[in-house]
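ligand=adenosine-5'-triphosphate
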Amino acid sequence: MGSKPRVLLVDDQPSVLDMLRLFFERAGFDVETAVDGPNALKKVDETHPDIVVLDVMMPGMSGIDVCRQIRSQPQTAQLPVIILSAKGELDDKVVGFEAGADDYVTKPVARQELLARANALLHRAQYTKVPTARVVAFVGAKGGVGVTTVAINVAAAMVAEGKSVTLVELQAHPGTMVHHLNMALAQDLGDLMALDASELNWREVNRRVVQHSSGLRLLTAPQDAAEYNLSPDHAKAIVDALTIRTDFLLLDIPTVAGKAMRLALEQADQIIMITEPEMVSLKAARAKLETLRSWSLSDRTRFVMLSRSPSATMMRRNEVETELGLTPDGSGVISMIPPAPEAFQQASQIGIPVIIGKPHILSARAILELAAWLMKHTQDI
Ligand SMILES: Nc1ncnc2c1ncn2[C@@H]1O[C@H](COP(=O)(O)OP(=O)(O)OP(=O)(O)O)[C@@H](O)[C@H]1O
Ligand SMILES: [Mg+2]
């Protein structure tokens, strides 16, 4: 909020608007006005008011509809709204509150009361303002290298640190996240891809998010065989909606290609590429790094080396960095996760991430350190 709070006054009667304008200007507010619903929504977008005072009965779009619309958009879901209406019946008030109003005041209202209510809401809003999430994207050098495993375990580690975390398996084809967690989910990303991207507001997206028993919030890839398409508009709208009301948004990204994935990756504060310490993986990782570089995203990219089998020839960190074309100083490869095939297999059988079920094994410790690194390094962006 700047030095002066900004109020948007919405009423179809110019005389009422003039009177309200006077009230609020005298009380030190910057005032914006609108005489109908569509214009009010436009002003909300353009002038970013701190609070809205909304008439109900207006021709065309009612104040109730305006309020619902404000609540459904992630950018304005938290915006304080006072409904100021001539309709004072109990039913009218209930409709107003159900549409998401913070307060309901009936006309005529005393100047002092309206201002006191507005100031109370503004005061509270300062403390309830929800910071937008830090976004971490996990990508694989190639398929099957452990992206979903790492994403789930990092998410669980963050939850254990008291963070609110949403984890999304952002792909149109069936994924394995539900199997890693041994869950059967009635809703997933397929439900969102079946909608038009323009319908993907905060509410629609968040109502598809499922809570795991650990507290982790999940949106998993579709499980059915329908042909879904994750358009760039879908990807952007979904990521946008999920960055509200959570500390961390973790994205499990299947591939570094295409516009939808590019848009999702552009919203990430950190990109973590998982690769195995063997030649094919490293060559694939290097090619993907080139793509990220061409998208101007390589600066925020770091690598995690994961060995899934004890027999794999372990390359050293600086060897791996040289192979990736990085300066061999340990800053590009931020974590080396050793193999523990039985532990990870058992974890998915019981649906309990390794960092919870077996926190002391080396692989779990490496992932816990990775999570701590991410929490530290995404803090001051
Ligand atoms: N440190 C580890 N040691 C041994 N096995 C592991 C380790 N980490 C993951 N795995 C196993 O590797 C397999 C593949 O992991 P995961 O599904 O996470 O990969 P992915 O990159 O997400 O694959 P996909 O491309 O199918 O999405 C799983 O069976 C998992 O249990
Ligand atoms: Mg996966």
